[in-house]
Amino acid sequence: MTAIDFLSIDLPAIFVAVLAATSCSLLGNFLVLRRQALIGDAISHAVLPGIVIGFLLAGTLSTLPLMLGAIGAAILAAGLIEALRQIGRIEAGAAMGVVFTTMFAAGIVLLEQAGASNVHIDAEHALYGSLESIIWMDLTVWMDLFTLDAYAGMPRHLVTLIGVTFSIVALVFLFFKELKVATFDPDLAVSIGLPMQKISTGFIVLVAVAAVASFEAVGSILVIAMFICPAATARMLTDKLSRQLWISAGVATLAGVGGYLFAAFGPQLWGSSNSLNAAGAIAVVAGLLQVMAMVAGPRYGALTRTIKKRKQRPASIY
Question: Which residue, among 285, 231, 276, has the nearest Cα to 255 in the 3D structure?
Fold first, then answer.
């Protein structure tokens, strides 16, 4: 592979993977801490019919109609989950399962009826994304990254994810205290006058925006993995929320870069001509990092706890 091939084919895909993973992982921290990780799963599936309806109504794949459709679908999904939980008297996990499977299936039906050739996405892309098809033709040498002309041909997915990721980072930074109180002590948040309903709705909208910005490029499987794995990994390594956010972003970045490089160049190591799906490889790497933290984490890893127990065990007098 030449440098031009790497710059125009691999580098933009790595950028997209890292941005998608980072934006989802930051929000995933609050989902994991609230024990609502399945909401990320539900929303990442539920946005599909909204995306398709947005395309059908607007007749274009531009970001705004797809985003509006996805946000509407996410809010509808949240409302249906709450209605099933209260009216149907079933627990939240079961309600989420009913809603996200039904809405995802409805989205697949809409895709098939609309025609995948017109929508430029089919059921396989909905699951695995299309990272491998993201190409930045204007990049031929590394110095092109420092010229304005190269950015005129920046891939649409990359432009969208840059805006979404920086917006999420800014909002999490600005409303960190409110999110922290609402996450750890909802009763205290209500008592000090925080608008919990608005915070919850706004947070769901942010999750939907992150999901739809990442959905077309990386697929629903990777979106779900990035909402959960980096945050859960970071939680094994620290008890401080601010540090957890940084660690989760680092884990997401490592998974994005490492997973893509493994998918692109791994088969060559054992002489195989078959390729690996990039989104799937990234999700696998994220899962492996989670396992490593569970086994060898410096605070809560299984090995660490075993060693501490042995050190605390009283010495035998015999």
Answer: 285
pLDDT recorded at residue 117:
46
Q: Is 139 helix (H, G, I), strand (E, B) or coil?
A: coil
pLDDT per position as a tens digit, 76-130:
887 888 788 778 777 777 888 888 888 888 888 887 776 644 555 566 666 667 7
DSSP assignment of 102-160:
HHHHHHHHHHHHH-HHHHT--HHHHHH--GGG---TT--SGGGGG-GGGGGG--HHHHH
Tokens 């209260």, located at residue: 86
Fold (CATH) for 3-312: ABC transporter involved in vitamin B12 uptake, BtuC (1.10.3470)
Domain boundaries, the chain: 3-312
Calculate what percentage of the chain has a pLDDT beyond 70: 89
What is the spatial distance between Cα 24 and Cα 32, in angstroms, rounded to a whole number?
12
Distance of CA 293 to the CA centre of its chain: 19
Q: At what angle do helices 156-174 and 196-235 cross, to 10 degrees?
A: 100
> How far is it, in rounded angstroms, from Cα 170 to Cα 160?
16
pTM over 0.85: no
Residues 213/209/242/247 CA torsion (nearest 10 deg): -20
Q: Amino acid identity, residue 251?
A: V
d(CA 38, CA 34): 10
